[in-house]
Structures are given as structure tokens and as C-alpha cells.
Design brief:
Elements lengths: L1 H22 L11 H4 L5 H17 L5 H10 L1 H7 L14 E8 L1 H4 L9 H12 L3 E8 L11 E5 L7 E7 L3 E6 L8 E9 L2 E9 L9 H6 L2 H27 L4 E7 L7 H7 L3 E3 H5 L17 E6 L3 E7 L10 E6 L1
Parallel strand pairs: 1-2, 7-8
Antiparallel strand pairs: 1-12, 2-4, 3-4, 5-6, 6-7, 8-10, 9-10, 11-12
Length: 339
């Protein structure tokens, strides 16, 4: 009986190991070519965790079948470290030569009371003020009368939707000398940029909010929606994300300045869109200096990291922090870099 159980467990182990192995190809497969396969990128964190559990199971049984998941995890070690970092990094540097960055999808400051807390706008304002970043990129920004970002003398807001209520915003302590929008059509999502003079240099900062899958973080809500309808909608959003990122990378290639990309990708670090942006000579601040899961989105099934701060390879990432303060459906991320 025990042998039969172990055979069944190993069968499940083999299926999950193959799925994880297949997911390693996703950053290189265009969603336009295989949109259904792109959906697998959102499940990579849970595939990693399940393979780790299978590996522990076989090790406890002193069974060499542990090698299957062990080898698959080893082959994708960079994927594992995209999910969880055992050690962070905190380096002190000359304050005059550093720049701090914060990205946060503020979910319209709880405008429709998703969270039972009337002081969300004030608390988000206080959090940003406490972190005191030099540049703050906000997504789903709503001009609530209770917010206060008066510490930023320079700002750029862009409303890329019909109702003109939600915006992307870049707030800066340094002068903004140029700004613009990529103006996505047929969606409220968008990418904006600002050219910011920092000390003796100029940097181009992109604030990104890629196409949303419109998945409610509640497991009940997911269960109620038909799987075929959900998959079809997600496939279309992956294709739109690729189109949006193609516009971004074309724009980056024309930049006369070093670039930084921040914001809500609505996709994981195992996706084609993330890999395409990273390939523009950028690196992930979380991978450089983060610790733990780096979770940035409230999803009950497994930890999700879909908000990123990507900087030029030549910049040293000194610190990185993700928060667990529940003031939105996202969590803010903040980093400090050496210029």
C-alpha cells in the first residue's frame, strides 16, 4: 500500500516538476504566439513551493526521488531567488550620491472603501513622508482632498482614462525638465515618464501600469467566474501587456539619459514582459538587495510580486524594502541606489 501511495505521489511530483521546467521558457515566449501558456507565469511561485515540499517529502523518506525536484529547482535557481531572498543588503553610502525611490499602487486611496479604514489617505501620506523618497511613482492615483505630498515641489500627473479620475503620478524633490505619456489606447492603463535633473546628471524615470487581468484577490470570486471566461480574458490582457511593453522598450531605446522603470506590471518576474524590460540593461532592485518573499500584491493563494523597481546595471542598489502595511491591495516598495 505504501509503495502504491509513493508511486502516486511521484506521479504528481513529476507533473509539477515538468510544469515548473516548462515555466523557465516563459520569459522568452511571446504572449502573442502562445497567450494561454503565458498564464502559467502567474503560477510559478506556487510551482516552486510545491516542488520544494515534494523534495522535503522524499528527503524525509530517504528516497532518491528527491533528485527530480532538486534538479529542476537547481536549474531555475534564479527563479527561486526571484521568489525568496534569504539575505538582504543594507549598505551605507554618502547621502549626496544616493537616490531613494518609492513605487506604490495606492488603489485610489480606498475611495470605494475596500478596506475598513477611513484614514487610508492620511496613512498613505504619512508612510510616504516617513520613507521620504526622492522620487515617488504612484499608480491608480486619485486626487483625494485628504492626501498631502507637499514635500514634493515637482510633479507630473497623467489621466489616461475617460472619466479623468485615476492617474499615474511622478513626484520629485528634483526638477522635472521634460515629461510625457505613451498614451495607450482603449485602456485606463498607461506609462508616463519624466526627465529629472539629479545633482549634475539627468535621469529618465518611467512610471508603469500595465494592463490588468482584473482578478479579484478573493478565492471565492475566482471560483464564481467561469474558468473559460477567466482564461480568455487573461490571454487578451497578456497580449495587451506585450504591446504596451513593446512601446516602452522602443521609447527607452530613444532616451538620451539613464533610465529607471518603476510601477505595477500586473505580471510576475517570470514573465515575458518583465524579461523584455530587464533586457534593456536594467536590474531588479529586489534581487540585488531584497529579503524574504518581497510580496507586493494581496493575493491569498500565494505570495505575489508584481510591482518592481528596475534600475541601470551600473547603479549599485544599496537597500530595498517591501512593506506589509495593508493600505491598498498592493504594498509599496522602496529602494536606495548609489549614483
Amino acid at each position: 500500500m505504501r509503495k502504491l501511495v509513493n508511486r502516486f505521489v511521484f506521479l504528481l511530483n513529476s507533473i509539477v516538476a515538468f510544469a515548473l521546467l516548462l515555466s523557465y521558457l516563459l520569459p522568452y515566449i511571446s504572449p502573442k504566439t502562445f497567450p494561454l501558456l503565458s498564464v502559467l507565469s502567474l503560477t510559478v511561485p506556487i510551482l516552486i513551493l510545491i516542488n520544494a515540499l515534494f523534495m522535503v517529502y522524499w528527503i524525509l523518506l530517504v528516497n532518491r526521488r528527491f533528485l527530480l525536484s532538486f534538479i529542476v529547482l537547481l536549474l531555475g535557481i534564479s527563479h527561486v531567488f526571484s521568489l525568496y531572498k534569504f539575505r538582504g543588503k543594507s549598505v551605507k553610502a554618502d547621502k549626496e550620491n544616493t537616490l531613494s525611490l518609492l513605487s506604490y499602487n495606492v488603489h485610489s486611496f480606498n475611495r470605494f472603501e475596500w478596506i475598513d479604514n477611513e484614514r487610508i489617505p492620511q496613512e498613505i501620506s504619512a508612510l510616504v513622508k516617513e520613507q521620504n523618497p526622492d522620487i515617488f511613482c504612484g499608480q491608480e492615483f486619485y486626487n483625494n482632498p485628504d492626501i498631502d505630498f507637499s514635500q514634493y515641489p515637482y510633479s507630473y500627473q497623467d489621466f489616461n482614462n475617460d472619466n479623468g479620475e485615476l492617474a499615474l503620478v511622478i513626484l520629485s524633490k528634483y526638477p522635472i525638465i521634460n515629461k510625457g505619456s505613451l498614451q495607450f489606447e482603449g485602456t485606463a492603463n498607461n506609462i508616463i515618464f519624466s526627465d529629472i535633473v539629479v545633482q549634475m546628471d539627468t535621469l529618465r524615470v518611467y512610471n508603469v501600469h500595465l494592463q490588468s487581468h482584473r482578478i479579484t484577490p478573493s478565492t471565492d470570486a475566482i471560483a464564481k467566474e467561469g474558468s473559460q471566461k477567466l482564461l480568455s480574458r487573461m490571454q487578451m490582457s497578456f497580449i495587451k501587456q506585450q504591446q504596451q511593453v513593446d512601446l516602452l522598450t522602443d521609447h527607452i531605446k530613444t532616451s538620451p539619459y539613464k533610465v529607471m522603470v518603476m510601477g505595477d506590471f500586473n505580471n510576475s518576474a517570470y514573465s515575458y514582459v518583465y524579461n523584455t524590460v530587464l533586457a534593456q540593461g536594467l536590474k531588479d532592485a529586489f534581487k540585488e538587495a531584497g529579503k524574504g518573499f518581497g510580496k507586493t500584491y494581496e493575493f491569498k493563494l500565494f505570495p505575489v510580486r508584481i510591482d518592481f523597481i528596475l534600475v541601470e546595471e551600473e547603479f549599485e542598489v544599496l537597500t530595498f524594502k517591501s512593506f506589509d502595511t495593508k493600505l491598498s491591495d498592493h504594498y509599496p516598495v522602496v529602494t536606495k541606489i548609489q549614483l
